Amino acid sequence: MTPARRHARLSRRHFALALPSALLASGCAAPHRGTGRPGDPIVLTLLSHYASGELKDALQGPVDEWNATHDRVKVRTKAVEFSDLLTTFMVRQAAGQGADILHPYCLWNGQLVRAGVLRPAPPEHAAEIRRGYGAAAVGAASVGGRVYGYPTEVQTYALYYNKRLLREAGVDGPPRTWRELEDAAHRTARRDGYGNTLVQGFGLSTYDDSTTVGQTLALLNAAGGSFVSADGRRTAIDSAAGRAVFDLEHRLVTEGASAPGVNVYKAFPSGQVAMVVSAGWWSGTLKSLMGAGYRDVGVAPVPVPEASDPRATLCTGFMLGVNTASRHPGEAWEFLRWLNTDRVRVHAAATGATVTRMSALQVSVGSLTGRADDMRTLLGAGGDPNLRPFLDALAYSVPEPNVPGAQQAKSLLRKNIEALWTGQQSVDEALRTTRRQVDQEVARSW
Questions:
Q1: Backbone phi and psi for residue 20, each to the nearest 5 degrees, phi listed first
Q2: Which of 59, 192, 317, 384 could cross-link to 154 by cystine, CB 3.0-4.6 Å?
Q3: Does residue 154 sit in helix, strand or coil?
Q4: Would the pTM of this model clear 0.90, i.e. be above it?
């Protein structure tokens, strides 16, 4: 699911179900006197896509806390829908109206850096980010080895599976290798007498980026491959790993174990998909949709080609950074440090455990940050065990490539994957076309 659709589907019920057993006590930071001149504050603007509902409220809480405890610097939030966010960044910057603090999808970071929108993190902040977050989160918030912001929402990919469907097909647990994945997909797939899909063994779907590009890149990373070369100047998918992934998906479709026309977001909760690769945010939605049926849902690491292969998967995310045009960059970075590194006490335990405000914010809406220690504290004993594989994957996930042409490259990849799945292109044609189109995109001057 695209970030826009994920955020649109957050509901009151999703919010309540996504909360961990250990909740933060609101306003737990001790008030203190401000550091400047009352009545003459600096006002920083923060532009994000947290435009409505729980996401808006979750961000506004710590912003209100900051404003209540700081006299000299105040923060005002502004928001647009995710679908308009990148355009808004670029248009406002060109008009000299850019916000002080930006909350971009990390896929866009290369483009924003090339356009002179994002300011590199000062050395002390960059050091804190590298020290406090997992490698994938740091990589997503970096361009050319330089850190540009504090990671916020982080999503890793894993294999969702229906325990009941696997059990009824005689499959003993989730697959660990691609051979086991194919076997399980064929054994669980079912069609009626007219050839209509009743159960899709492995959920390939042309529904959105997450179910085409997201899971394909997760499988590509698991095979040791990558979408874009290390220097960011060409695609690397036309490789042995890329061919293996395209071959796998092509076989699943042509042999009837996958049906790309099926919307997995509806079919999986209805017991019509046995397995699918997706991101961790989906767990909260599935829990609210399925009720008692959620007990049939399991999550496991993305299968690897061979049992001896090291684990890898995809990581996507967002970050908070400072605009190059901000007149008060020092104050902006100080607010981000407070939001993302200062620690507040977890309300529940007599343990005295603490987490950052951003980690608490993300878990409250069913997400993760790249701070694994915070996530373990917040998920705590009694949390949803299906979130654990996503947390574990922070240690071995690979960030989405964020070269300047990354958004268009992703769209081109999706188009060619769908052409492969629907029989419009062979594996060779899909790899060649993707290489030609993406190479042209990422190599051009921005």
A1: -80, 175
A2: 317
A3: strand
A4: no
Inter-residue contact 341 to 133 (CB < 8 Å)? no
How far apart (Å, rounded) are the C-alpha atoms in residues 129 and 126? 5
Q: Retrieve residue 64's tokens.
A: 């209100």
Give the angle subtended at the CA of 17 by the CAs of 15 and 20, to the nearest 5°.
95
Neighbours of 388 (CB within 10 A): 16
> Token pair for residue 362?
């993300």
Tokens coding 344: 């507040």
Q: How many CA atoms lie within 13 A of 174 on its CB side?
A: 22
Chain centroid to Cα 437, Å, comes to 25
DSSP at 291: G
- Cα 232 versus chain centre, distance: 21
**Helices H / strands E in the chain, number of each:** 20, 16
* Distances in whole angstroms, Cα of residue 248 to Cα of each of 38, 166, 179, 237: 64, 20, 10, 14
**CA atoms of 282 and 214, how far apart (whole Å):** 13
Note the pLDDT tens digit of each residue in 399-411.
999 988 899 999 9
- For the four alpha carbons of 39, 45, 46 and 49, in that order, the dihedral sign comes to positive
d(CA 44, CA 48): 13
Report the C-alpha gap between 282 and 5 in whole angstroms: 11
Residue 273 tokens read as 């998909």
Residues belonging to the chain = 446
Residues 428-446 pLDDT 10s: 999 999 999 999 988 775 4
User: Of 79-93, 122-136, 199-213, 314-328, where does mean pLDDT reach its minimum?
Assistant: 199-213
CA distance 37 to 98: 25
